């Protein structure tokens, strides 16, 4: 049986990170997580380095602006912190309207990947809903994008935003294949209202089917926002994933 890897995108706990980064990571480790996806690691580099040394948490991945940001600096810091995969969280919607624009965006990310290889850092991309809303001959923009990526560039499929955008996350995983190395897992109704998001297992997402479709992908808990206590939401999400992910 494949070993399941569970992580949490620390953007979910951003308010706590801003006030008590080491305490937040300690609480995450106490929940049972062994991995984290770092948020704003460039800003909090030294604080993360110290806090990670005090916990068993591994920074498997992190988000950073790569296409429109300072990619060389982000890659260098990622390597210093031991981040395995550095993920571009968003390429603006205007670059997803034509096949040519999508392929140009992929070429930009490929350029970052070439830079990162020598540093031992893998590059990835995380979607929202705009990458799947438009139809390109029966395929989504995300699929066109994936075809234009270098072989070692991976995808972090945000399953919630794929579903909200009108695509089946399960079908996307099937078509994108092994390139999907990370899953962003959040729940709630099919809405773009962030405060209506819910802990994993408490909304309308087909969570169990998604997990079965990608047994080898890292499971990353993330809520863009939440009306209640985000720590409780993260804990409830992890418990649900461990229970159904067998």
TrEMBL record:
Pfam family membership, one: AP_endonuc_2
Protein name: Sugar phosphate isomerase/epimerase
Ranges of residues in domain Xylose isomerase-like TIM barrel: 26-241
The keyword Nucleotidyltransferase appears for this protein: no
UniProt keyword annotation of Isomerase present: yes
GO molecular function: isomerase activity
InterPro entries reported in the protein's UniProt record: IolE/XylAMocC-like, Xyl_isomerase-like_sf, Xyl_isomerase-like_TIM-brl
Organism domain of life: Bacteria
Any coiled-coil regions, as ranges: none
Keywords per UniProt: Isomerase
Species in which this protein is naturally found: Streptomyces achromogenes
Taxon lineage: Bacteria, Bacillati, Actinomycetota, Actinomycetes, Kitasatosporales
């Amino acid at each position: 049986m494949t070993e399941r890897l569970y992580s949490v995108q620390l953007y979910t706990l951003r308010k706590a990170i801003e006030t008590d980064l080491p305490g937040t990571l300690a609480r995450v480790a106490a929940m049972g997580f062994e991995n984290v996806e770092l948020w704003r690691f460039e800003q909090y580099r030294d604080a993360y380095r110290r806090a990670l040394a005090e916990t068993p948490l591994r920074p498997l991945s992190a988000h950073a602006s790569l296409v429109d940001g300072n990619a060389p600096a982000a890659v260098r810091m990622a390597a210093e912190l031991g981040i395995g995969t550095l993920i571009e969280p968003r390429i603006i919607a205007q670059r997803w309207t034509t096949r040519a624009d999508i392929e140009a965006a992929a070429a930009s990310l490929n350029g970052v990947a070439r830079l990162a290889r020598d540093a031992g850092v893998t590059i990835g991309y995380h979607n929202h809903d705009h990458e799947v809303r438009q139809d390109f001959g029966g395929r989504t923009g995300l699929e066109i994008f994936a075809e234009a990526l270098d072989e070692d560039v991976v995808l972090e499929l945000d399953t919630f935003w794929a579903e909200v955008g009108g695509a089946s996350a399960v079908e996307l995983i099937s078509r994108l294949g092994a390139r999907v190395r990370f899953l962003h897992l959040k729940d709630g109704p099919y809405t773009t209202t962030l405060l209506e998001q819910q802990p994993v297992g408490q909304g309308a997402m087909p969570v169990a089917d998604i997990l079965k479709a990608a047994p080898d992908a890292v499971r990353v808990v993330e809520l863009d926002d939440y009306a209640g206590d985000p720590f409780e939401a993260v804990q409830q999400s992890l418990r649900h994933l461990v229970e159904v992910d067998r």
